[in-house]
Amino acid sequence: MANMIGDWKLVPELTTGHDEYAKALGMTDTEREATRNLVYTLHLSRDGEVWHMKVDLEDGSVFMDVKFTMGVPFHFLSFDKVTKMTSIITLQNDHFVEKLTSDKEGVIMQLDVDTYRDGDFVVTAQTKDGKTETQWLRKL
How many domains does the structure of the chain reveal? Predict the structure, then answer.
């Protein structure tokens, strides 16, 4: 997956399925609006078996800064800094396949995330209850 290493910025106008996906997550109208045009940069690097993933938001804040090994659970907080997230990422057919569990005040949700390279882009498809948001990130 060396072709995904680097810095990638979301192209928000290419995002599809946001509202349906956000509703499946149980977001309020205000939360859906706040996240609809959220722009971020994904930084992905690797040192041997250890991956480093950092996500910077457009406002300069850091959403996530984690190191992980394929197949080993890791933890972080969601955008709201309240929801506890547990992720397990595996590599399948040149895709990062992520099983994500969120825990917000005892309400548990399971999400699937598929991230892969498509031409000049990294594509991330997040799915909850059959509703998928697809985001396209362009290499910086």
Answer: 1
The 3 state secondary structure assigned to 82-119 is: CCEEEEEEEEECCEEEEEEEEEECCEEEEEEEEEEEEC
Structure tokens at 45: 């690097």
**CATH label of the domain that carries residue 48:** 2.40.128.20
Amino acid making up residue 120: D
- Provide the token pair at 136: 């396209």
Tens-digit pLDDT profile for the chain (140 aa)?
678 999 999 999 999 999 999 999 988 899 898 888 889 999 999 999 999 999 999 988 888 999 999 999 999 998 778 889 999 999 999 999 999 999 988 999 999 999 999 999 999 999 999 999 999 999 99
Range of the domain at 37: 2-139
